[in-house]
Every structure is written in C-alpha cells, then in structure tokens.
Amino acid sequence: YTSFTFYSGSQGVIITDTIMFFLFTIIAFIAGPYIMSSVGGWDQAITRLATFELKPDIIAWHGMTGANAFWSTKTAALVWAVVLGFVWSAVVAVSPWQASRYLMAKNEHVTLRAALIAPTCVLLLYVVLHFSAAAINLIKPDIAPSEKAYIWAAFNVLPTWMGVIMLGGIMAAALSSCSTFLSLVGFSVSRDLIHESGDSEKVLRVSRITMAFVGLATLGITYFQPPAVMWIGYFAATLFAASWGPVAFASVWSKRITATGALWGIIGGFIAVALGETLKKYGGVDFPVYLRPPIIGAGFSVLCIIVGSALTQVSDAERQFREKLHIRPAGEGSAVEVSRTMTLAKTIAGLGVLTIIGVYYLYSVPYNAALQ
Length: 372
Description:
Elements: H1 2-6, H2 9-38, H3 42-50, H4 74-94, H5 96-103, H6 108-139, H7 149-156, H8 160-193, H9 200-224, H10 228-243, H11 245-253, H12 259-282, H13 293-310, H14 316-325, H15 335-371
C-alpha cells in the first residue's frame, strides 16, 4: 500500500479510489444476495435471524444488548448511534481526506453532486452488507474475530470466482483508504509541520519517508492485534470531529473567531478526546453514554474557541479571508449547472423514498412476522 502511494500523487489517488469504490460496491451487491440465498433466501434469512437464539436481537433496530454485548441497554445503543451519526457527519464535512477532494473538484456543483451520490451508495451498501454479514452467523456463528466474517464467507460460501473478486474488493477498499490517508500524512508533515517548500524533490523525499514510517507502524499494529485498525479509525474519526468540527464551522460562519481561538479549539478538543479515551481504555473510567469522550471533546473545543477568541481580536487579514470564502465563484450560478444539481437532488430524494419502502417490506414485515 505504501509503495503504491509513493508514486500515485493526489490525482492518481482519486482515480484509483474511484475505480476501487466501484469494484467493492459492485461485488458487494453481487455477493450479499448470494449469501442470503445460501441460507434459504432473503425472507427465510430474516426470519431465522429474528429468532436466532445464539445471538438474540442481532438484526433488531438496537442490535444485541445485555451483559456480554457492546451496549447493555437499547437506550445506550440508540444514543451511541445518534452520537456516531453526528461524529461522522462532522468528519465527512471537515476531515482532511474529504476536504482535500473537495478542493480538487471542478466546481462546487460537482462537490454537491458527489455529496449526494456517495452517501446514497453507502446507504444501499449498508443495507446489503449488514444483513448478509449477519446471515453468515446462520452458517458459522463462531467466527472470531468477527471482522473476518466476510473473508471467511469468501473462502467457504461464495463460488471461487466470486470469492476472488470479493477478496479483491476488500483489498480495494483497504487500499483506497490507505492511499488516501498516507498521502495526506505525507503532505501534512512536509507542508504543514516542517514547512518544506520550494525544493520539490526534498518535499517528495520527506513525504515518502513519513509515509514509510506510518506504513511500518500500521503493519506492526495489525500484526500484533489485527482488529485494532478498525478501532483506530473510529478513534481518529472522533478526534477530527471533536477538534476540527467546531473550528471548521466557526471559521466559516462566525465573525468573532480568531486564529488563537481556532488553535486552542483544535488543541482542546484533541486533548479532551485523547484523555477521555485513555481513561476509558486504561483507567477503568465508565463514561455515561450521553457524555462519551467525543461529546466532551466537542464541548471543550467550543469552550476553548470562545475563551481564546474573547482574549484576542480578529485581524484584518482574518476578516478579509473569511469574507472571501463567502464570495460565490463565477459560473456557480449557471442555470445549466443548477438544473443538473437539482435534478440529481430530486432523483436521490425519490430513491430515498423507494429505499424506505423497500426496507419496510424486505426487513420490517418479515422480521415482525417472525417475532409473532
């Protein structure tokens, strides 16, 4: 992955990301229904999962709860789902790996259309993946760790050709994320931290050394504890949401935020989340579900922004830069571009309604019938 990123560059990563996105999305829509058919078809799978005694409530709206589950109560599961939804909304809006893509878009209409299409694909992908992944339990309920369920299915349930493509899709998804994150790490270190500029060869060398170091560190983590990578991703998401989220939105919409307030907002949110997660992991501190580290971090970030901005004044350069952000670029009001964006928005809205209807008849009806 690391060597691949060395030579791809930002535009190359976008091209490969797009290709890999289509690869794992298409194969998921092929493999998911096949797995469901292998356990008796969609309706039969939903019925069996609804009454699955080994893992009760595995496809309930709240998921598995209880002493041995991730969440003890339905309320805790719901609150965490809402919190996680807000966290990832903020991450998608302000994270570097997203913002860097927006900056390379042809215009803002392209960004808006992509923002409509991508979540729709993810929504449909989740419907297929979550139910088919749960259905694997009907074939082998003791897969450990659970992160390997689809990999096990690729070897033992799917036809050889489909399993090969499925593994390729999983690798593509990993490679897509890896290339994006590694390129951003290299750029951030060379441009933002050590401020290398001018000598392009030196900048490239620093970026590659940084990416190699991060790649080796990631390899070590995955070797000793494979599932850790997923939790590192969740941890990173909460860090960005709590530290960058309030600052990013305030920098665009607030006239009072200053550079000092923004800096301490990022630092405060980062420290609060990192400290909270450390206390939870190693200190045995049990935070209430409505006051998890991401929520504490976001609140502390806002507090730091308010205090830091109150103690300083907005400079003329900061004021002018913010005002420049609100100037609509020429051509963004084009009737053709607006029409295309609105047409897509209406299409996506219609697709959303169809998805709700489909989930109702494919999940809610057979699930509730099985419980009666």
